[in-house]
């Protein structure tokens, strides 16, 4: 309140210590030097990709999975896809755990082959994709792996497979679905490949609840080091 003479009362001196002035770019520098996040994956997705498939330690005779002619025994593989106890809903985590040892057996077999052996046994069965050379590149990565090559080859492989499945869809359908998950859930592919085979693909590449390898790689959610060489 003003004093009797109309003047404002004198202010008392502050007892607080003045804060030291921060350098203009110090906060930005501190942000740049801060410890980066260890992963951009959620804990559930990280577990699915990096751990679940390696929990079970068992092996299978290769003849149970792949015939001598190079044909895949889908019946044996699809037996390892897991579903809910009360309903036919796909159980992705249990399926990854169950399919992990099969993938390990296939991985070891591929590492034992030469490029010539791989071509003679499998390339004829890859012609429907219209890009067998991508699979040859992936095979070379399996034999000579390093982090960046594994991630890059998987990106190429999943995209090529998506395109090939879209071409198959168009054999009997129109207006191919834009999203991979919708393509894998389509009645057109179900009628050609059967639901069990499509469920295997959903576990590996095309569903947010599964490994979802196509999306986590292409959208940059996962680092190269987080993709196990034996995925």
From TrEMBL:
What's the protein called, per UniProt?
Endoplasmic reticulum membrane-associated RNA degradation protein
Q: Where is the composition biased (Polar residues)?
A: 11-29
PANTHER family from the xrefs?
Answer: ENDOPLASMIC RETICULUM MEMBRANE-ASSOCIATED RNA DEGRADATION PROTEIN
Domain DUF4209 spans what residues? 161-228
Q: Which domain of life is it from?
A: Eukaryota
Q: Where is this region: Disordered?
A: 1-31
Question: What InterPro entries has UniProt attached to this entry?
Answer: DUF4209, ERMARD
């Amino acid at each position: 309140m003003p004093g009797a003479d109309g003047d404002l009362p004198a202010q008392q001196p502050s007892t607080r210590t003045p804060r030291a002035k921060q350098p203009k770019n110090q906060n930005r520098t501190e942000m740049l030097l801060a410890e980066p996040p260890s992963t951009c994956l959620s804990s559930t997705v990280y577990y699915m990709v990096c751990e679940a498939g390696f929990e079970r330690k068992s092996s299978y005779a290769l003849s149970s999975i792949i015939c001598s002619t190079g044909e895949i025994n889908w019946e044996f593989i699809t037996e390892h896809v897991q579903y809910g106890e009360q309903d036919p809903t796909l159980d992705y985590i249990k399926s990854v755990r169950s399919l992990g040892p099969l993938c390990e057996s296939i991985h070891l077999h591929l590492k034992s082959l030469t490029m010539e052996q791989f071509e003679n046994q499998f390339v004829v069965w890859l012609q429907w994709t219209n890009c067998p050379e991508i699979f040859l590149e992936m095979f070379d990565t399996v034999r000579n792996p390093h982090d960046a090559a594994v991630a890059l080859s998987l990106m190429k492989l999943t995209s090529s497979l998506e395109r090939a499945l879209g071409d198959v869809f168009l054999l009997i359908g129109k207006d191919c679905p834009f999203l991979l998950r919708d393509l894998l859930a389509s009645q057109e592919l179900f009628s050609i490949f059967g639901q069990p085979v499509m469920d295997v693909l959903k576990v590996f590449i095309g569903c947010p609840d599964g490994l979802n390898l196509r999306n986590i790689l292409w959208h940059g959610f996962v680092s190269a080091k987080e993709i196990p060489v034996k995925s």
